[in-house]
Amino acid sequence: MNANAASRAAQWIRADIQALKAYHVPPAHGMVKLDAMENPYPWPPAVVEAWLQALRGAALNRYPDPNATVLKTRLRETIGGDDGYDLILGNGSDELIQMIAMAVAGPDRVILAPEPTFVMYRMIATYAGMRYVGVPLRPDFGLDVEAMRAAIATHRPAVVFLSYPNNPTGNLWRRDDIQAIISATGGLVVIDEAYAAFASDTLIADVGHYDNIVVMRTLSKLGLAGLRLGYLVGAPAWLNEFDKVRLPYNINVLTQASAALALGLGEMFETQTAAIRRERESLRGALNRLPGITAFASDANFLLFRVAPGQAERIFTGLKERGVLIKNLHPQGGLLVDCLRVTVGTPEENAAFLAALARVIN
Ligand SMILES: *Cc1c(COP(=O)(O)O)cnc(C)c1O
């Protein structure tokens, strides 16, 4: 090891980056994995065969189609609606958040979001050298419209992120609250619909009604987390600018071919996501029957639940020792004190989680 590397890095790496902790993904080998909102259902063998067939035609020696023309056409078919919008693709919606931040960044520029919410909004704001302002949600996880309006007036954010439904609380917000925020801000509002497959509402039809909203979606939570494909739907005036900071070949050949095929499997995904939505409701009922536990209503494929005061850390660790990995949100503080988040799995996984939890809380 070169002993000077550390001092060189300390000299040159931005202080705000040095102050960060890298995004931590816990090891999950051999665990019942209910921490990352993945779809637990594999593909039937015949579908896997059709997919492998499609991959045989992929030319790995060539750069991918920079505009992902075939894939975009398939996406437009699944989105439907009018043609007044444009589409940009990202290597996961994380990359789209990064592109949006890069395109608006400046030392005095602000990204604003209600809190608690998806942590990447804050992290990417920091990477881009921007200021991040979090506005607390109400205790019932609703938007605090007055506080949002005041923060928007003070900080004049370039971008407001609204996760709809919100990760990690799971709820949708009132449409009139969202409309009030869209009207109050001069900047862009990104409606992040990562959980659209599980939600009872979407704002996709509103894209044409406002000058300042775009809707972001991803195939990750639907069941294709391994592919890394997110998309942004919005007016060409915004999207043409974001497209300038997109790396030319950001969607690789294998993702383009696989996603184009997967978008033709609507019925399979509908069956899987319907099963997850049903399981979500029975899992919530079972959680709420356990002593000291409150599981909140969810429009996503996860449930946020609160445990007895001071017990979150012990319960999280106890579950891990019994081979069940969920997410401990207690360290984030605020409204998430005493809170854990569990992804809805297969009936067997959910039963294993509930059995382990029942033992740990006793
Ligand atoms: C998981 C998640 C994403 C990230 O999705 P990728 O497409 O996998 O990068 C974005 N937003 C929210 C709210 C999420 O929960």
What would you note in describing this structure?
The chain is α/β, with parallel strands linked by helices and 362 residues long. Helices cover 41% and strands 15% of the residues. Helix 7 (145-155) packs parallel to helix 8. The chain is globular and about 55 Å long. The structure holds pyridoxal-5'-phosphate. Residues 37, 92-94, 118, 163, 167, 192, 194, 218, 220, 225, 230 line the site of pyridoxal-5'-phosphate.
Percentage of β-strand residues: 15-25%
What is the number of E strands? Answer: 13
The assigned structural class equals: alpha/beta
What is the percent of helical residues?
Answer: 40-55%
Overall 3D form: globular
Given as residue ranges, the uncertain stretches (5+ residues, pLDDT < 50) are none
SSE inventory with pairings:
Elements (H helix, E strand, L loop, with lengths): L3 H9 L2 H4 L13 E2 L11 H12 L12 H11 L6 E5 L2 H12 L5 E6 L3 H9 L3 E6 L8 H11 L3 E5 L11 H10 L3 E5 L20 E6 L1 H5 L5 E5 L1 H9 L8 H10 L3 H23 L5 E2 L6 E5 L5 H10 L2 E2 L1 E2 L10 E5 L3 H15 L1
Parallel strand pairs: 1-11, 3-4, 3-5, 5-6, 6-7
Antiparallel strand pairs: 2-8, 7-8, 9-10, 10-13, 12-13
Bound molecules: pyridoxal-5'-phosphate.
Structure summary:
The protein is of the alpha/beta class and 362 residues long.
What labels would you give this structure?
binds pyridoxal-5'-phosphate, 14 helices, 4-stranded antiparallel sheet, 362 residues
